Input
Amino acid sequence: MSGTAAGVEARLPIRSDLDLVWVRQHVRQAAATLGFGLVEQTKLVTAASELARNTLVYGGGGELRAVPLTDGRAQGLRLVFSDSGPGIPDVEQALRDGYTSGGGLGMGLGGARRLVHEFAIDSTPGAGTTVTVTSWAARTPRPREEP
Amino acid sequence: MNDDLSRAGGAPVPVLRLGDVLLVTLQGDLHDGTAEQLRQDIVAAIAGSRVTGVVIDISGVEIVDSFLGRVLAEIAANARLLAAQTVVAGMRPAVALTLVELGLTLPGLRTALSTGAALELLGRVDAAATDGPRREPR
Output
């Protein structure tokens, strides 16, 4: 199935709201290529949009790396959002619904976590933040891993 | 393709006036800036004419994230302060499922399954206003 993953792997800059559009387009196309259903695509693209906006607004810009995954017959998509911004002092607090430091609805991080199968965040104050999310196409049983 | 995307995302959203209703049709993927601009355009259009209703058709929108959700809620709140009702029409089922999971249920936002149903809803609201007290259709 390696042929179907062509074009999925990518490195995209996140520097402007036009880049957010590119991120959404790429994730949509990559998820469709890997066999994600419409609802799964919508969830993953929405999560990517939230996380890319965090990278832009709070991280001062950064990049997305998209990586196709294979686990047996299951196809997955890993998205890694990284910035070298100020970092998140209290990750647990930032993941709580309603928490916001930027005038949003406070749904970004916690909401994005609910839309994906696996979620990991690594943030160092002063050095930056990396958020890694993974989802699997549903036609085969997906691994249920907690981050 | 870059040019196409710039146009699709960056072009302003047309705001049409049909009698006393503003009709706004969102298509494809909106830039954040375009969504903000739309909010201002709608407020200006309501203030500049005797508009009592705003219908925002999002049937062509593939994703609504918390930013666009917030803009829609703010448009409705702004319109309400200017004596106009807002109905968001045609949300795709996948978008609705995703918004709830995201935690964004937008309680202040009135919705209809289609633009036609939204116009009907606004018509009923007007009729109710002249017929005296009536329960808010939800």
Remarks:
- Confidence is low (pLDDT under 50) at residues 1-8, 125-134 of chain B.
